[in-house]
Specification:
Helix 4 (58-67) packs antiparallel against helix 5 (74-87) and helix 6 packs antiparallel against helix 7. By secondary structure, the chain is mostly helical. 16% of the residues are buried. It is built from 15 helices and no strands. It comes from Ceyx cyanopectus (Indigo-banded kingfisher). Residues 2-225 form the BLOC-2 complex member HPS6 C-terminal domain. Residues 211-258 are annotated as: Disordered. Residues 245-258 have a biased composition (Polar residues).
Length: 258
């Protein structure tokens, strides 16, 4: 409430500017929010307990201004998408992706997936899993498979892909799936290029040991042993073995004469 009204019932400057943009220059609002986020992030003091944008992210504050409009139109849906995407936050991007799926704007769905999958591996996995679930339910994404399959994360195995597909297959009450007469069912042929791509790519562990496996000789030859020759001083200092006690020649002579 304080973020919306500020002190003494005065509307904060950010909300006031957003309202002005929505009224006079709506196309400028997403860019304004994006630039404001960048400026606030640069000037943020790391000792502050709150985030760089305060308790409420700026894109949510802009969405709050948008939701207070008296009349809602298709242009407002597009504005909501742009505000979510300009934040580049994972939750906001996924929210925009689900909104596009609900509106069935499949080309825009693919464009958003291709662009924002590069932000982080975790977001890439979430986006691809979401679209794979949609792919299992209908055939609207079939024209874009050449763009979607390269987005498959490296950590996803073939078993993971099949698990997602089987969990989201549509339930048909009339015909079993393998013998369905409908033309919108998922077939093995549609899924085969993705599975081949996953199976044929090198494993992560293979990359770790690739340098060793590609060496000229594996295992490496044993280094030659060095034969150490003891020095003369060391030989002199070494303890001598005890000499056997023998009788002196004079003793032997005395024994013979006796």
């Amino acid at each position: 409430q304080q973020e919306e009204m500020g002190q003494n019932g005065v509307v904060p400057l950010f909300e006031l500017i957003c309202t002005s943009f929505l009224r006079f220059k709506p196309k400028w609002l997403p860019r304004f929010v994006e630039l404001t986020q960048q400026y606030v992030s640069i000037s943020w003091a790391y000792s502050s307990k709150e985030g760089p944008e305060g308790r409420v992210p700026l894109y949510k504050r802009a969405l709050g201004v948008l939701s207070r409009k008296s009349k809602h139109s298709e242009a407002d849906d597009e504005m909501e998408l742009e505000l979510l995407l300009c934040s580049k936050r994972p939750k906001a991007v996924l929210q925009a992706l689900h909104l596009l799926i609900r509106l069935k704007r499949w080309q825009r769905v693919v464009e958003v997936a291709e662009k924002f999958s590069k932000l982080s591996p975790l977001l890439n996995k979430e986006i691809f899993t979401t679209l794979l679930a949609e792919f299992a339910q209908h055939r609207e994404l079939d024209p874009y498979l050449d763009t979607l399959w390269p987005l498959c994360p490296a950590e996803l195995a073939a078993s993971d892909i099949l698990t997602v597909v089987l969990q989201h297959l549509p339930r048909s009450q009339e015909d079993p799936v393998p013998f369905s007469s409908e033309g919108n069912q998922l077939t093995v042929g549609l899924l085969k290029p993705l599975l081949q791509r996953v199976v044929q790519r090198p494993c992560v562990q293979d990359d770790i040991y690739s340098d060793a496996l590609q060496s000229p000789t594996f295992p490496p030859p044993t280094p030659p042993r060095e034969h150490k020759i003891p020095s003369k001083a060391a030989a002199d200092d070494a303890p001598q073995p005890p000499m056997a006690r023998t009788s002196s020649p004079s003793t032997l002579v005395q024994g013979d004469t006796a």
